[in-house]
Amino acid sequence: MKVLLYTTRNINGVGENVLEHFAHIKEISTEIHLLTDLKNEKKVKMKFREYGVEIDCLRNEKLYYYLNDILIKKDNRTWLDIYDSIDVSNFSDFDLLYICGGIYFPNVGISFDGAKKNKFPLKCSKRFISNGVKIINILTILKIHNTYKIPLHEVAFDPDELNCYLFHDSIKSKIGDNYYLYHGYDDSRYNITRLDSVQYYYNDKQFLDKQFLDKEYDLTFGYTYSNIIREKYLKEWEHFYNNLLKNEHKVNVFKKILNSKDKSENNFLTRSEYLKYIEKSKYTYILPSYWDEFFSGYRLFESLFRDCLPILNENCNTKYINKSFNVNLDILKLEQLPSDEFRNNVLIELKEKILKCEPEFLLKNVKYPETLFNKKNRLDFLFDFS
User: Fold this and answer.
1) What is the DSSP string of 250-287?
2) Cα(229)–Cα(233) distance, rounded to whole angstroms?
3) Closest by alpha carbon to 15, among 33, 42, 41, 36?
């Protein structure tokens, strides 16, 4: 199967973890191409290889024409006009299209509940080249899908993205009509279904013998603050944090205050550095997402995998993830750290129910090798709590 991949995320920076969602593609592909604006082919291929994916070819032959002729020269055509002009004839022989991380520019209304919902790409600004690059590539993928009826599988890395079925009626994808939308758990509000892409990655051979026995810290928590919604939740965190200090728990807190004049407030780490602390911590803490109707499922997964049990803010919306995995995460809405026995028992239960890669929760209408699910599961390597 010949597959074309795309992501809007910065794979060499804060968005690197999006690559975890591409690992399972190697099970169904014979040839993998990547649509990208990145120029360093060797570096890009090496980054994907770290996540078990071999990229055969980088595709960006159309991009620079549009950048120069449309964005830099301030062409007056709409994005819909640009969509019509994109030539996708060199992409007719693909069998599957896969996007993880769509366009998300909430400041200009390009989001799930933004002003451009069901209107994009009409009347949308082309002022920023960095945004334009992403839009051109998404429109290219969508036109390939619409022109050749090639199945399009889209992972909503952030459910507030403007996914392809939320575009203008003239070009949008239609769910169930060779278009499928996924996230880490089922949520009918956003038409997303569960995809065990992260679970596949965690259960891959590179992790099977990895254990996280050495717990140096009681709790590690990192957060970014940028809006008023999070302010009220952070007050609840401060109360929880003060209780930890009173009980002399060993705690790490890493934060990034956006638009802060006092840069000394920020001590945020890279994701890989932060996860090293999670590996060495018994607990972490999860706030509601910026869009507080939604729960940070991927934060839960990465913590459970590292034997770090999350404590949830009481306002976290767990309704849909509970239903999707048949669990009750509300027991983690605590005002103080629980006993080791509680932690151990809950970790065992949640890892068993959440971290398995289940065959029915991979790409729809795609045949995976039968041998895939005979692989030894990560659960066989749970450490002995006794």
Assistant:
1) -EEEEEEETT-S-GGG-----HHHHHHHHHTEEEEEEP
2) 7
3) 36
Question: 127-141, 315-329, 339-353 — which is least confidently predicted?
Answer: 127-141
Does pLDDT of 382 surpass 60? no
φ, ψ for residue 223 (rounded to 5)? Answer: -150, 160
Domain ranges of the chain: 2-183, 217-354
- Token pair of 29, please? 């592909």
Q: Which residues contact 355 (CB under 8 A, 6 or more apart)?
A: 199, 202, 203, 301, 304, 305, 378, 379
First to last CA, the chain: 47
Question: So what's the pLDDT on residue 39?
Answer: 79
The stretches of the chain forming alpha helices (DSSP H) are 41-49, 63-66, 79-85, 129-148, 197-202, 228-246, 271-279, 297-305, 319-325, 340-354
**Burial degree of 166 (CB within 10 A; 0-12, 13-18, 19+):** buried
Closest CA to 220 of 269, 184, 262: 269
CB neighbours of residue 319 within 10 Å:
14
Class of domain 217-354: alpha beta
Q: Are 200 and 362 in contact (CB under 8 A)?
A: yes
Q: Give residue 44's pLDDT.
A: 92
Residue range 2-183, CATH number: 3.40.50
Average pLDDT over residues 1-5: 97
What's phi and psi for 169, nearest 5 deg?
A: -55, -30
Q: How far apart are CA 186 and CA 62, in angstroms?
A: 35
Contact (CB, 8 A) for 121 and 168: yes
Task: Round to whole Å and give the CA distance between 206 and 210.
Answer: 8
